[in-house]
């Protein structure tokens, strides 16, 4: 397992803070107000100023890979036009520091923080954003491609469409239901154009990070509902990326232009799976405009978020992917983790990670990235959920490694 990547993951908006510094522009999340207790990411974990401390923590942990995201608005404050050199320099220094301690940089170019000026022009509903994203990709790759090990253009496009544009739970807070589907096509196309821009810049390994969830049924007669949900959550992004087509039930709803599917289906060096839990479906009740209804999964322990803890779901999901795509590239678990409120003693997190890492290893993956290195701003839940191997006191910014941190260090070292 000498080539196995033992890693941790974070995202820019959730940890960096420094929202008004170095010329960074506003993103949709700066302006989103539907957040727990009115909290903001203005400071978050202050990683922008404390990144050396966080790299030192990773060195202590013993990981050989760190997955982080670049803030589009730190590099291009309006999402297009001139480069903010000071912002790009921040990521240049971070990558250098990681390489110096033999931690492979794994870069995500977009983790949900759309520049607000682009959202004002329609955001992911506007096809023009695809070209803007390709330009941004080229800027970042030109600076970092010589040192970054793995590239991920877009993190969890399903969540952008479903939570950001369909239900409004996430920024930008649109509630369009099926009218949100054009965003899925534009996200897929942006992925494909970004892959091409990365390869043109000499990037090494290029892949993706899609959120996947096994679709379970409450009763056998709910199979159609589960299939509809899986088509939207699992296959709407994987199918065009890996097979050059959309699921049959959704293809006619996508705003496809000639050549789009060819641009989306680019050869990938790896496939990233973000896994947290299965989803259980039943047929919709009267008045529900959707072809499915979500229902609780009972008889499993739950995280602080209330998510069922089911390591077998990870095994199932990877098996489904390999069955559906016989030429599936090597798989990395690019995110898996759990929220619990504990300060230091967190045996429940250890149990979660132990089960999921075992499931991943038994599924012949190439790496596992724990979400997350440190507690962070958890989107609409603010600071109410703690995913970190490291506890963060948000008043003092003091970092305290939890028991799970030390447990993961022992796993990595083979103790």
TrEMBL record:
Keyword Hydrolase among record annotations: yes
Positions of the catalytic residues: 156 (proton donor), 335 (nucleophile)
Gene Ontology molecular function terms on file: beta-glucosidase activity
Catalysed reactions, semicolon-separated: Hydrolysis of terminal, non-reducing beta-D-glucosyl residues with release of beta-D-glucose
Keyword list, A-Z: Carbohydrate metabolism, Cellulose degradation, Glycosidase, Hydrolase, Polysaccharide degradation
GO BP annotations, alphabetical order: cellulose catabolic process
Residues binding substrate: 14, 111, 155, 276, 371, 378-379
Documented EC number(s): 3.2.1.21
Record-linked PROSITE patterns: GLYCOSYL_HYDROL_F1_2
Domain of life of the native organism: Bacteria
One GO CC annotation: cytosol
InterPro entries, sorted: GH (IPR017853), GH_1_N_CS (IPR033132), Glyco_hydro_1 (IPR001360), Glyco_hydro_1_beta-glucosidase (IPR017736)
UniProt xrefs under SUPFAM superfamilies: (Trans)glycosidases
Keyword Methyltransferase attributed: no
Family (UniProt): Belongs to the glycosyl hydrolase 1 family.
UniProt-listed NCBIfam families: BGL
Entry protein name: Beta-glucosidase
Originating species: Lentzea tibetensis
């Amino acid at each position: 397992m000498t080539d196995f990547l033992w890693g941790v993951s974070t995202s820019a908006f959730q940890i960096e803070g420094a929202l008004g510094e170095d010329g960074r522009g506003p993103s949709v999340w700066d302006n989103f107000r539907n957040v727990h207790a009115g909290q903001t990411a203005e400071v978050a974990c202050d990683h922008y100023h404390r990144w050396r401390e966080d790299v030192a923590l990773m060195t202590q942990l013993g990981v050989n890979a760190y997955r982080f995201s670049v803030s589009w608005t730190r590099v291009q404050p309006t999402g297009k036009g001139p480069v903010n050199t000071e912002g790009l320099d921040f990521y240049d220094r971070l990558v250098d520091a990681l390489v110096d301690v033999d931690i492979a940089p794994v870069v995500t170019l977009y983790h949900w923080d759309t520049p607000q000026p682009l959202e004002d022009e329609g955001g992911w509903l506007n096809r023009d954003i695809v070209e803007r994203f390709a330009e941004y990709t080229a800027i970042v790759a030109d600076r970092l491609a010589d040192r970054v090990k793995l590239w991920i253009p877009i993190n969890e496009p399903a969540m952008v469409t479903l939570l950001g544009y369909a239900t409004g739970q996430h920024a930008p807070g649109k509630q369009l239901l099926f009218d949100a589907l054009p965003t899925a096509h534009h996200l897929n196309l942006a992925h494909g154009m970004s892959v091409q821009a990365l390869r043109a810049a000499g990037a090494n390994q290029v892949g993706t990070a899609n959120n996947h969830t096994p679709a379970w049924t409450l009763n056998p007669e709910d199979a159609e509902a589960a299939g509809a949900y899986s088509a939207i959550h699992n296959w709407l992004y994987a199918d065009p990326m890996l097979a050059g087509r959309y699921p049959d039930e959704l293809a006619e709803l996508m705003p496809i232009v000639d050549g789009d599917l060819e641009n989306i289906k680019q050869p990938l060096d790896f496939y990233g799976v973000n896994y947290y839990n299965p989803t259980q479906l039943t047929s919709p009740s009267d008045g529900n405009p959707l072809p499915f209804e979500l229902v609780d999964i009972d008889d499993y322990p739950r995280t602080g978020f209330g998510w069922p803890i089911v390591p077998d779901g990870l095994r199932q999901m990877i098996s489904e992917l390999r069955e559906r795509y016989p030429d599936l590239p090597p798989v990395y678990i690019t995110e898996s983790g759990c929220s619990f409120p504990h300060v230091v003693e967190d045996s429940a997190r250890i149990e979660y990670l132990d089960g999921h890492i075992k499931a991943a290893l038994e599924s012949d993956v190439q790496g596992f990235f724990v979400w997350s290195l440190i507690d962070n701003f958890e989107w609409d839940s603010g600071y109410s959920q703690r995913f970190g191997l490291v506890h963060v006191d948000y008043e003092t910014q003091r970092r305290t490694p939890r028991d799970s941190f030390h447990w993961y260090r022992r796993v990595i070292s083979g103790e």
